[in-house]
Design a protein that fits this description.
The complex is a heterodimer of chains A (343) and B (172).
Chain A: H1 33-40, H2 46-55, E1 64-68, E2 73-76, E3 81-88, E4 91-93, H3 98-108, H4 117-122, E5 124-127, E6 131-141, E7 147-158, H5 168-174, E8 184-188, H6 194-207, E9 219-223, E10 244-248, H7 252-262, E11 267-270, H8 276-287, E12 291-297, H9 301-305, H10 308-315, E13 321-326, E14 333-339
Parallel strand pairs in A: 8-12, 8-13, 9-10, 9-11, 11-12
Antiparallel strand pairs in A: 1-2, 1-7, 2-3, 3-4, 5-6, 6-7, 13-14
Chain B: H1 2-50, H2 54-65, H3 67-79, H4 81-84, H5 88-96, H6 106-118, H7 124-171
Helix pairs in contact in B: 1-2, 1-3, 1-7, 2-3, 3-5, 6-7
Classes of the chains: A alpha/beta (343), B mainly alpha (172).
């Protein structure tokens, strides 16, 4: 039974588990095995793939797979991780070699380093299915300030999950005027599902949701880190709705102004607001009549308010609503959803 | 007498055909080298201007070049990268036996072998430089072969006809 979210008060102080504003995450939030088996395992060396398949029960939710040169392979599950170090009878010893890391990297980059230089510089690449492969190794800083990772020694496969319906129960709370969602800031620590929620809110905005009073709107997604739509070859790998224009891998501030000018979106979605440029672009977009759905790292709104540009956005009243997520009952636990308190 | 005449013509014809065939073989090598240059130029364009992922770039280059070289590039494209689950180097090993590259000179095969080791492993500028170096290498080999071909092709044809004549004279 979904309760009504709290709308006032300091947000969110550590809350008791039975608080009415806390929504449990949807059951599908942790379902990652299918994508893991279909998209990730074929890319890792046969020895490691077979070892994992032999030890992990089919259907187990896997969030991440980490390969580190000379170290045991690690599978990160929703509540714990499994280190394949041979410590138990059902846990084989799977040590990834540097050569295996290199071959896997070659495959995940589609043997096309030249086409992914900027992604390598950012430390991750997106693969089909929208999954993200993070890279670590020895960084080299060039004279022009760009960072390149050479001698890649660690790969982290983060399984992307599009949870259709993740935002459905919040849509009524977040509805604004003119049949659109209100400008909303989604706050959560890493891995709590803010991008998943944002993605579904994009879909809802594009499709419309009459029962929540939301009509279909043109949506512009500025996806600097390729996480919202997870484009591969320019095509969104996740369902972001039928009216979404995605500007992939474009810096947020510039991208927001670009979509405002070129596509005239009614709703703009962007991920992880940061510095002054981002804040000014969001302010310009909202002042220009667009609804902005954005996310921000933080455990609660108080933490977000400690950052100067986030505080400015909140105190000036650009955002009307807020959603605070946590992992307390698993990724996607809604701690708060409703009007944004001004203090 | 009639049998001798027929045999002589047959012998002469066979020897001449062998000479012309060998000359055509040299011509085929040159044609494949030209195709290789075309394929490498197309690959360079796909990499430098379109930034196409390597498998698609190889396939596009192969389709443009045609012939045995084109087939090789298309197969390399389909068997490498994310869909093929192989590096270009591994893919080359598997496809070399399946394509009729006998007409391709050894140096050209070596050039492809060396190029695939560097394909997809370096940045945009370096990648184009690697491909351009291979083009230069094949081109210089091609021009030397073209000069050589003029002499050798004529020689093979003469050898075929004259060899046949000589055999006829000796046998008669």
């Amino acid at each position: 039974m979904i309760g009504s979210p709290a709308r006032t008060g300091v947000l969110p102080a550590p809350a008791p588990p039975n608080r009415s504003s806390v929504y449990s995450p949807p059951a599908s939030w942790d379902a990652g095995w299918e994508a893991f088996e279909r998209d990730i395992l074929p890319l890792v060396p046969d020895r490691i793939r077979l070892g994992i398949l032999a030890s992990l029960p089919r259907g187990m939710a896997v969030n991440e797979l980490r390969l580190r040169a000379g170290l045991p392979v690690c599978a990160v599950l929703p509540a714990r991780d499994i280190l394949f170090d041979g410590s138990g009878p059902s846990v084989p010893c799977l040590i990834a070699t540097g050569e295996e890391i290199g071959r896997t990297l070659s495959l995940v980059s589609d043997c096309s380093y030249y086409a992914l230089e900027s992604e390598f510089a950012n430390g991750y690449i997106t693969i089909p299915g929208g999954h993200r492969v993070g890279l670590t190794g020895q960084a080299a800083v060039w004279a022009d300030g760009t960072v390149r990772i050479r001698d890649v020694s660690g790969l982290s496969f983060r399984i992307a999950r599009a949870v259709k319906g993740a935002g459905a129960r919040l849509a009524r709370e977040l509805a604004g005027s003119y049949g659109r969602l209100a400008s909303t800031l989604i706050v959560s620590p890493p891995g709590a599902g803010k991008t998943t929620l944002l993605r579904d809110l994009c879909r809802i905005s594009g499709e419309g949701m009459p029962e929540a009073g939301i009509r279909p709107s043109q949506v512009g997604i500025v996806d600097e880190r390729s996480e919202i739509a997870a484009c591969y070859g320019g095509i969104p790998q996740h369902d972001v709705g039928p009216r979404a224009d995605v500007l992939d891998r474009c810096p947020k501030a510039r991208g927001i102004m670009m979509v405002m000018r070129s596509m005239g979106p009614e709703v703009i979605a962007t991920d992880e607001l940061g510095g002054e440029e981002d804040a000014r672009a969001v302010a310009a977009a909202i002042s220009g009549g667009a609804v902005v759905l954005a996310t921000c790292h933080g455990n609660d709104l108080e933490q977000v308010r400690k950052r100067p540009y986030s505080r400015w956005l909140l105190s000036e009243g650009y955002f009307d609503k807020a959603v605070v997520l946590s992992r307390r009952k698993g990724p996607g636990t809604v701690e708060y959803a409703g009007d944004l308190p001004r203090t | 007498m009639f049998l001798k005449l027929a045999g002589s013509f047959l012998l002469l014809g066979t020897a001449a055909a062998a000479g012309f065939g060998t000359a055509r073989g040299v011509e085929g090598q040159i044609e494949e080298l030209r195709r290789l240059v075309t394929a490498l130029q197309a690959l360079s364009t796909e990499v430098s201007y379109v930034l196409k992922p390597l498998p698609q770039a190889l396939t596009a280059a192969g389709q443009r070049a045609g012939g045995a070289v084109g087939e090789l590039f298309c197969l390399l494209g389909s068997r490498s990268g994310l869909s093929g689950r192989r590096t270009p180097e591994d893919a080359l090993e598997t496809v070399l036996n399946e394509t009729c590259l006998g007409e391709l000179p050894r140096l050209a095969r070596e050039t492809i072998g060396e190029l695939v080791k560097s394909l997809g492993t370096s940045g945009h500028t370096e990648q184009v430089r690697h491909i351009d170096m291979s083009i230069d290498r094949v081109r210089s080999f091609l021009s030397s072969m073209e000069v050589e071909y003029g002499k050798r092709a004529r020689m093979y044809r003469y050898l075929g006809v004259l060899g046949g004549l000589m055999a006829v004279i000796v046998l008669i």
